[in-house]
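Hi L.,

You mentioned the student needs an example of a multi-chain input paired with its predicted structure. This one should do, with 615 residues in total across all chains.
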Amino acid sequence: MRTLIGVLFDGVAYGSLLFLISLGLSVTMGLMSFVNLAHGAFAMMGGFLCVTLMRRLGISFGLTLPLVFVVIGAAGALIELGLYRRLYRASALDQVLFTIGLTFMTGAAATWIWGPSQQPIALPPSLHHQITLLGVDFGVYRLFLVGFVVVLAALLGLGVARTRFGAQLRAAVDNPQAAAGVGINVSLLFSITFALGTGLSGLGGALAIDVLGLDPTFALKYLVYFLLVVVVGGPGSLKGSLAAALLLGVADVAGKYYVPQLGSFVIYAAMIILLVVFPHGLYGRRA
Amino acid sequence: MAAARDVVMPGIARPRWTPLEIVFWLAPIAAYVAFPDRRLLLSQIFIYGLFALSLDLVLGYAGILSLGHAAFFGAGAYTAALLAQHGWTEPLSGLVASGAVSAAFGLVVSLLVVPGSELGRLMVTLGVGLLMFEVANHASSITGGVDGLTDLPIGALLGRIPFGLDGRAACAYGFAILLVVFLLARRLVQSPFGLALRGIRENVRRMPAIGVDVNQRLRIVFAVAAGIAGLAGAALTQTTQLCGIDSLGFQRSAELLIMLVLGGAGRLYGALIGATVFIVAQDSLAGLSPDYWQFWLGAALVALVLIARGGLLGALDALRRRVTRGKR
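Structure written out for the whole complex:
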């Protein structure tokens, strides 16, 4: 029972991270049908930026987080304006090739700058211990992660449901042509959302260092998970991404805990089955 | 009947052999004679050309974007390795058996891949590739895990020519397989079946209206291509006498895409030219560290998409059009 709760908790913490990183990808795919395989690279750069800021400039972990969000978000906006914008009308093949190319380049550059090994991170002591609740040990850092993502998801949910920007975003995801027809500036809307999404994934990459680790293969290693969250959740759906991320997080942690000899086999098999059974995602609207 | 056969449909590839094609197929023989110390490299070019040809059928002709094509390459490679390890050392029958296993596997996978959307297909093929890698990685008592299978006893070709370090047998073997498969593939894409594939790629919705079972055609071509990829994998295992886990990796699938796109998809020859350029470039840049190689690989991809859509052959076509227009 204790281990079950422990596994569930770790899975939820892991799922929270997946949600944070994948959200931007979900918007890119849902709004622009753009297959962005370089999304993991943004998260990875967020992690490296966080490590560098802490090590070189001595900034505390908590303070690096907003900096990472802003810098990676701005970088995302620049890349969107300069490169991605040309490819929205291109074939999926072109998009895949281009973004795989970017991922390879980022990975090689990261190896060159930071070396191929795992990056250590010194979390503040306040986040680095365990507390015991009802006889089960919980890592404070993971509690913090879950809490952070719960608050963020609530804010985003409110933003999408209640604000004017959110209403425009929903309209554009549903039908970009019609949204443009009623005077919504879809491309500006998308640029802003893309910047927010990459910023969040950078933030997720920084928060993930202690849980998923950080090395130059991060972008490719976890790409499947991010894609999976989007495809299972249904592109462009906040609720779907959250559900899919938590489901995957728990399934992966449970699979690796109870049947370690299978490794990632469980998650890949689950992915193929989910894709075949729910081709439009758990919350897919397009039937 | 005869009249119907003579009707020339626009857009069908010329069934006759052009002089350029004959020169193309003589070139490897010239290379074999001219570079006797690079014959192993030449055999690699044949094998990867075969592999790229397989992806061309799926992507270039049928329009299915596969991110896990190495799964079939690896399936063939491991089948050939396991056969040899368990005493079946005769290469030709081992090759055919590996191709058959891979084709059967491809047929099963096609049932999952074909019905999906474009994004779904991409994800399922990616998933199958990763799944196969995990299987090979964890079933180490059978597959050797990360180390792969080495020192495989492969019998002599036709009972006479052993696969040695001079690469003579490897070259002849690779060239023969490539030529036979190419002839079959060339015939296939010019057949009504091949035309149906192109029709599906151009407009999926109209094809059922002229009586084509779209999913059936796609399943068949997917299985055929998987079989060809399996032949390539088996040939690599047999000519090198080893089978590494990287034959199943995502990097292998991505490199394959690069080869095909570099040469130009949907024209068969593009696959061969792309594989040649890729392998030669990889060989001459091998002195650099793998990270540099990966960086330039990425940069090449980005440049291909931004500048040279259609690959080398596409660029050549565009150039030729410009020159002929200039003459008029």
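You could point out the following to them. Chain A has one domain: 2-277. The mean pLDDT of chain A is 84.

Best wishes,
N.
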